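Teaching note: in complex prediction, the entire set of molecules is handled at once rather than each chain in isolation. The prompt given to students was simply: 'Predict the structure of this complex.' The entities are:
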Amino acid sequence: MSVDTILSFEEAMEKYDPVLGFEVHVELNTRTKMFSSAPNVFGDDPNTNVNEVDLGMPGVLPVVNKAAVESSIKIGLALNCKIAESCRFARKNYFYPDTPKNFQTSQYDEPIAYDGWLDVELEDGTVFRVEIERAHMEEDAGKLTHLGGQAGRIQGADYSLVDYNRAGVPLVEIVTKPIEGAGSRAPELAKAYVAAVREIVKNLGVSEARMERGNVRCDANVSLRPHGQERFGIRSETKNVNSLRAVEHAVRYEIQRHAAVLESGVPVTQETRHWHEDTRSTTAGREKSDADDYRYFPEPDLVPVVASREWVEELRATLPEPPAERRKRLKEAWGYSDLEFRDVVNAGVMDSIEETIAAGAAVGLTADAARKWWMGEIVGRAKAADVDPADLGVTPQAIVELNQLVVDGKINNKMASQVLDGVLAGEGAPAEIVEKRGLAMVSDDGPLLEAIDAALAAQPDVADKIRGGKVQAIGAIVGGVMKATRGQADAGRVRELILEKLGVQG
Amino acid sequence: MSSFEPSTELIRLSAAALAAKLKAGEVSAVEVTQAHLDRIASVDGEINAFLHVNTNEALAVAAEVDGIRAAGGAAAEELHQLAGVPIAVKDLIVTIGQPTTAGSKILEGWRSPYDATVVRKLRAAKMPILGKTNLDEFAMGSSTEHSAYGPTRNPWDLERIPGGSGGGSAAAVAAFEAPLALGTDTGGSIRQPGAVTGTVGVKPTYGAVSRYGAIAMASSLDQIGPVSRTVLDSALLQEVIGGHDPYDSTSLTDPFDNLVAAARTGNVEGMRIGIIKELHGEGYQAGVENRFNESLELLKEAGAEIVEVSCPNFKYALGAYYLIMPSEVSSNLAKFDGVRYGMRVLPKDGPLTIERVMAATRAAGFGDEVKRRIILGTYALSAGYYDAYYGSAQKVRTLIQRDFAAAFAQADVLISPTAPTTAFKLGEKLNDPLAMYLNDVATIPANMAGVPGLSLPGGLADEDGLPVGIQLLAPAREDARVYRVGAVLESLLEEKWGGPLLAQAPVLDSNSTVAGGSL
Amino acid sequence: MAAINRDDVAHLARLARIEMSAEELDRMAGELAVIVDSVKSVSEVAGEDVPATSHPIPLSNVFREDVVGHVLTPAEALSGAPDSEDDRFKVPAILDEE
Ligand SMILES: [Mg+2]
Ligand SMILES: [Zn+2]
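The expected output is the structure of the full assembly:
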């Protein structure tokens, strides 16, 4: 395979403006398929979730899943689209062995949702509005496994095996209008857009939205035009870019590749490209030979979907708060700085913090305390365990209890960290762990006073400095005492006792 | 067991008469079923109406019915009135336990893992299924010569076609191999075979009978319907197979349970019956016209008011049909590709790719007429032609519906000959597709508009002594009207002939075939 | 509308996945030309203002509740398959060798 010449991104940006476009396919998490009552389940044994309809057996007919229509309307509403008063399905005809009827039942000239927009927030807080052309309903294809050639590659394979479990899973395809004006931020916008769509459908509860499972799949269109030119350049469509990072990289790569082609004086070829994660590059795809002519026509086995305004409003009333609005509200309520809040969001603990604050409301747990626990203790452990913080196994209730033990002076922060280890090890609730591990703080002043005497005696020069008014030197003595008590003393009380002993005001 | 009527008499009884005898215990379901199986064994070597005979299962169902009747009690009371009355099923309709070929090589040997909704209903009514009947491949044809399994012959003249695509079902009923059969009608495939074999065939309102399990030809036109020897029998059968089906999105929720009563009404007094100006006269065989006019006279004498209506857009119906039908065909038949079921053929040379295997399979598996329609439909839908062809044809459909609406404002029922000619000779039109297509000129408008149509025998043409069909059409959902008028006209005609028309059919020489020979 | 010729038929046959010999293409082109000619009046009949009818009986909103129904066993699903392996349908290579 020949390697493309590419220009550096900076050089490309000096001369050209990128125009982007996305087709994002979202698999809905309905119980059954789009047109049959077979289960919509991921990961089962091959051809166990199929009936005669999914296999395109002779004589079968489709029947529309109402829940899938409702999910599609919800997606349309969340993307600020108009919902068609009447729309219908169409057949997209092409032969491919993963498509059991050799046509895909989709929507063509009458999508269920159209003319919407989505505000996409970039990492520095810039908001970029992406116009949505349409969102339409369709069905997924089966899964092909290519064997006999290079592992998993279609090129050179001797044969392929088809599992139709995924055939007929409901999809919503979201198509943007051309996105202009992103400039050098185009790759970043690409990633942020797909992330925003993913977040919306997840928040709506209409999709599992797991990109690694293909629940959300992105086709990215890229074209370049010289600065100042209005007419769009010729675009490429990079298919199935299936992680957020890959979306960013693929758009960046295509910009660089297009720029090199244009620089060489040749027009860009309008074509499908395939993204390769290993080489972080795209290659020209072989066209499905029917791609120029899908011979769409209205699906005669289905009748129109008429979305009454009452039905649409009923569905609108069930929509959860949009993620962006929710973030704005929470940031204000919690009083976090921009940086603190972004860190929380990026660490994926916003929901956990919200739940923790709610659980600790009765005992006055503060937003800052909740943040410190999650960001200071849990995120790091989750990273080490390679799981999402929320999946680590620490409940908001455990955090509230732990925090209360510290507030009450029963344990100090260092001990709290050990208690958390105990919680993760499944040793029980925080209070139990304190008991079992014998972590209660030394609160009897007797042993403390002995340790203080010993520490002062060991560092007479420091003692003198403190007596002389340099109170900040007290750390060395406190440290000595903590060491002697193996950390089980209340550092605050130790400090008080030292100052008392030396007759100095704190 | 019962009064031993010779089985030759049993096979000549109507379904309604058989049902009455079964209920009265005068005959057993096994006897009735066996009589028909014997008849099939005796004559089907000549007729070739059946592609598969379902002997064991049919007899088992019949024995079950007899057992329930013998035991008496509630179960016997609850038996469907047609329980034990055997039936043949067009081989376009899928059945568990029997092959379904659609008359095509591409499905040879295929067994459906599911039953069509209408088959489930036949099973629920405990009607023994005698077997699967021959048809033009995927129901594409008007002569049953396009079957991959040889043509079916017309019991009136073995050198002639039995109509199509449902020639097997019509011939089976005409040859007394079955009292009832199921057909499918996309452009006349129930009614035209009915016309040329002297039997009754009904295309119900689109959506009155579930299409689930009928292998689709043109989805927006296809409809399953009854084939029988009397109008009442068709009404009885439509009540069995009709009704809403959640597996068919185009299935109507309207009740269609007034059909038998309509067939028993017995009068047409005051009904307005409209002659469609465009569907008779020029292009219609003289003998067909004569019998048609005779039926009009009889209806008038019975008190119906005969009016003339004009449906000016019907002249475009055939053209629009030959755009819509092949377009849907091209898509509906794409699934036959050698991947999931049916035949697979490898290309003779060159690289072994799935694209080439699909093309080789479809080349070998489909006959010429099927290929012609697939190519025509692919053309009509392709980029640049859609609006002119498929799009325009859908508009013509609107015009045809408007014509029907205007006509039904003037008449309760419309009437025409079912087909322009009587049965033609085998091979006569095989190499002239257009001439073949013209057979459906009078039946197609009903499919385009979804309205119900019934064909009943109107007598024999003077010039060739072959049956002529009379077609009755009613507004959508008014199937009862075609049964009411049809039954009255049928009884008037039988009075005139001194008995059923089929009594005049030649006796088939049952000695020319080996009884019980394999089929 | 241009008359349908042999190259058109070859293109359509490829789209429709039907292998055709040269002789078949010629014959089909002749037959289709006649048929297309006979139906072309259709495109001249209905004006702009006439809506298209795709369903003979107008219905809308025919839905199924999202309730799991029956499935086939893999053995039933694959019972008619010309070729299979590991409970999956087996098909020859999808692309030519590049
Ligand atoms: Mg797309
Ligand atoms: Zn799509």
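Point out the following to students. The domain at 445-502 of chain A is CATH 1.10.10.410 (Arc Repressor Mutant, subunit A). Chain A has 16 helices and 17 strands.
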